[in-house]
Amino acid sequence: MLNVFDSKASKALLGLAIFLIAGFQYLFWFGEGGYHDHQKLAQKIQQQTEINTDLKERNRVLAAEVYDLKNGIEAIEEHARLDLGLIKPHETFVQMSTIGTHYKPIYIDPNSKVDLRTNEDDTGASSVNEP
Description:
The protein is mainly alpha-helical.
């Protein structure tokens, strides 16, 4: 069997076959549309699928809200109360603040003439006071 590759033509054919196989392997792994490009596209498809799932859920919630607003008085009243701040007669509106305790309010003297660009009054002193 070893004497099959003794001729120059058969050695050339063997070299050509090895070269073609190596070339095709290179194209499979690194060429345009090859394995690495396929993996990148599969990852992008997975990310887009997750985004689409989130958007479908958001659309479902919005569609339910639209349905409620078209068909229910309670939804309209809830929207008017929460988003527009409307209250019924003889009701007391209470708003809870979500500002943390680390917040320090800034007091501005309403009688001073403040230049808002420099935050200084006519004498050059800062008119913003912290408690």
